[in-house]
Amino acid sequence: MSNTQVTADQILDLAVEALEDVKAQNIKVLKVSELTDLMDYMVICSGTSKRHVHSLGQNVVEHLKANGVQPLGSEGRDMGSDWVLVDLHDVVVHVMTEEARAFYDLEKLWDIKPEQR
């Protein structure tokens, strides 16, 4: 798959699959296409530790690359981070520790009901 052939829904499925493979917790998918032109979906999940957060973000990047999707970028992938963001074009993945997730509360910030995956 190349980026031009992959739909946002396919990227979303690959990202969620990568998160589930490494046991992400509380995965939420927010469809934000009607609220912003920057992305179609936002995925938010939790890791049990900073190391787990790192592993989850790394797995998303590697899984997407293995399927022909080159991420636009990622932030916070060093081992000490409690929040990793992976930009996958029309899908943005946020992997956070429970503490960071509770503090930033992105679900409430976007104020929409998450789709259960």
UniProtKB/TrEMBL annotation:
Entries under InterPro entries matching the protein: Iojap/RsfS/C7orf30, NT_sf
Sample GO molecular function, one term: ribosomal large subunit binding
Record-linked Gene3D superfamilies: Beta Polymerase, domain 2 (3.30.460.10)
Domain of life: Bacteria
One Pfam family, short name: RsfS
GO biological process: cytosolic ribosome assembly; negative regulation of ribosome biogenesis; negative regulation of translation
SUPFAM superfamilies on file: Nucleotidyltransferase
Record NCBIfam families: rsfS_iojap_ybeB
The name this protein goes by in its record: Ribosomal silencing factor RsfS
Gene coding for it: rsfS
